[in-house]
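User: My collaborator and I are trying to settle a disagreement about how two of our proteins should look. Neither of us wants to argue from intuition anymore, so we agreed to look at predicted structures for both before our next call. Could you fold the first one, then the second, and keep them clearly separated?

Assistant: That sounds like a sensible way to settle it. I'll keep them separate. The first protein:
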Amino acid sequence: MRTVATAQPMKSRTLLWLSIGAGLALLFAANAHLVYVAMTSQPDCVAHLRSGDSPNAAAQFSAAKSSCKPQ
């Protein structure tokens, strides 16, 4: 038969391992969500200067190599 003195450390140890497991599960779920979003999302093209669009384009920032087609 267990006494109160031996039951308390067992309860604390169980709570510790459950907390560690829950934290690892949360970490795994968050990383899986980030990978899913990165693989399924496609950002839209945004308006920006393309090289050769403006005579003074050298003085302004522009995309190095745009993958979007001009509209």
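The second protein, kept apart from the first:
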Amino acid sequence: MDTEIEALEAKVNKVIAVVTQLRAENESLRSQLAAAEAEKLRLQQTMTAARQRLEGLIDKLPEDL
């Protein structure tokens, strides 16, 4: 009986370790996702500003070219 309880305890400890590892990995992935979303937003804003500058320059070009 003690052997079975010890085996069960070992399995429970392994499950706890895996859950702990997965939680840490999940938190890391959430942080990476938040950083990627922030970078995406920054790049979208940069592209919008560049597009507006290009459109402004195009508008200043003479029409007879």
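Some points you might bring to the call about the second protein. The chain has a mean pLDDT of 96. The CA atoms of residues 14 and 20 lie 10 Å apart.
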